[in-house]
Amino acid sequence: MSSSKSIPSPILQKISAEQAYHYRIVPSGEQNGTLFFKTDQKVSSQLQQELEIVLDLKVDFKYCESEELQKLLARHYRKSKEPSTSGLSYSSDFLERLLLNAKSVGSSDIHFEPYENRCRVRFRIDGKLLEQYSIEPNEYPSIINKIKIRAELDIAEKRLPQDGRISMKSEEIEFDIRVSSLPTLNGEKLVLRILSKDTSSLNLEQLGFSAEELEIFKESIKNPNGIILISGPTGSGKTTTLYATLKHLNNDSTNILTVEDPIEYTLEGINQVQLKENIGLDFSSTLKTFLRQDPDIIMVGEIRDVQTANMAIRAALTGHLVLSTIHTNSAWATVSRLIDMGVPPFLIASTLNISIAQRLVRILCSKCRTKVPLNYNELPKNFKPSIHLKTHYKAVGCSSCHYTGYNGRKAIYEILPITKELKKPIKSNEIQISDYIEKNNIRTLKSNAMRLVLDGVTTIEEVYSLLTD
């Protein structure tokens, strides 16, 4: 079976995904000006001439079995997840085609990376980076400049990081792109974050909450005041949970204000403010202004410092519901983080309604997952499962999942409502609450991760880091 390493990206990018599937061909190599293809059909002289005209190269073919070709197509050329984009009239511009291709295959980020002898473009799909294109070093600067011009960045400034934004719009599709440039040894590295304007998928019921967890969460957001904090590392889906919550709370009788960096979804009926720290528009100053805007619900993109934390607590104390995110490893660690920032424990106890920790895990492809006996050596050494497992599922790979073994992602949650019983350890800054968690049957990230393994939703490899915590 061919791997992505056996066919270099410069060879693969000689044809588009549409051409590969239309002609049922996959390039396998190039020699002396001739491009070699694998195919499962008899190639006529007419088809060969057509391809030579289209590609402006001499072509040659090698027959392979249909099964092998299908694997190569699925592995190296992703079909669009959004059929409507197939009608887009791509310009001849490489950048335009690349951005639309990234959006259509479900990529969340695009990485442009310069090295000494080559430059590459990688897409992040389902949380993993995959190399898609190779760019000649002499062509790389012009592509970077085109992106910087569209993002309204200074093309003459190559020594300092810059941030910008691009809007992509056509008859069928509309989305924004956040652009971040970083000077490196061999040139500027760019990361483009694709920001969707489609909010149809923002639904609390579809995020990954269990029925019991969803009920607890919905009950907590019914409170007219207090703070709801969602924690987790970058890329764990915190913002998506926040937006789904805002969409659930949004109605004609509620004034919702948000301050974000960046605005990832545009929600009708919600007043959204883009952070601009270079002119003094930061989280804490914007929150101060929000309190004079007669809000019912306030969403702060992230609590980064004590000023923002104190302003959020002040807003909660004056009768507003505040939603925000914070970088911690567990729901209880959020409390410790706030105390470490300098927030008085008694204020945390009186304003925090619920603390939530979350992670994203890849979901096993239902068409090719395989049940195998469990070898306990596969589990972390210090981890002892509460449920005896005899079997689990392994990722295999098929055409439906592009031979990755996974298809999509879902969130795992750890929900900790701040009850009267918990307010006492918060005020006294007690670190250990394991007895409380066990007594109240609170499902931790670890136990929920193991439940997904037990149910065959994901693999041990995917949740390994959670089991070691």
Q: Any overview of this molecule?
A:
The chain is of the alpha/beta class and 469 residues long. 31% of the residues lie in helices and 27% in strands. It is built from 16 helices and 18 strands. Helix 9 runs parallel beside helix 10 and helix 12 (345-351) runs antiparallel to helix 13. The relative contact order is 0.08.
Helix content: 25-40%
Total E-strand runs: 18
Secondary-structure-derived class:
alpha/beta
Q: What is the helix tally?
A: 16
- Backbone CA Rg: 25 Å
Keywords:
single chain; about 475 residues; alpha/beta; seven-stranded mixed beta sheet; six-stranded antiparallel beta sheet; 16 helices; disordered N terminus
Describe the protein's topology.
Blueprint: H1 9-12, H2 17-23, E1 25-31, E2 34-39, H3 45-55, E3 58-63, H4 66-76, H5 94-104, E4 109-114, E5 119-125, E6 128-135, H6 140-150, E7 162-169, E8 174-184, E9 187-196, H7 211-220, E10 226-231, H8 238-249, E11 256-260, E12 271-274, H9 283-290, E13 297-300, H10 306-317, E14 321-326, H11 333-341, H12 345-351, E15 352-364, E16 370-373, E17 391-394, E18 406-417, H13 420-427, H14 434-439, H15 445-454, H16 460-468
Parallel strand pairs: 2-3, 10-14, 10-15, 11-12, 11-13, 13-14
Antiparallel strand pairs: 1-2, 4-5, 4-9, 5-6, 7-8, 8-9, 15-18, 16-17
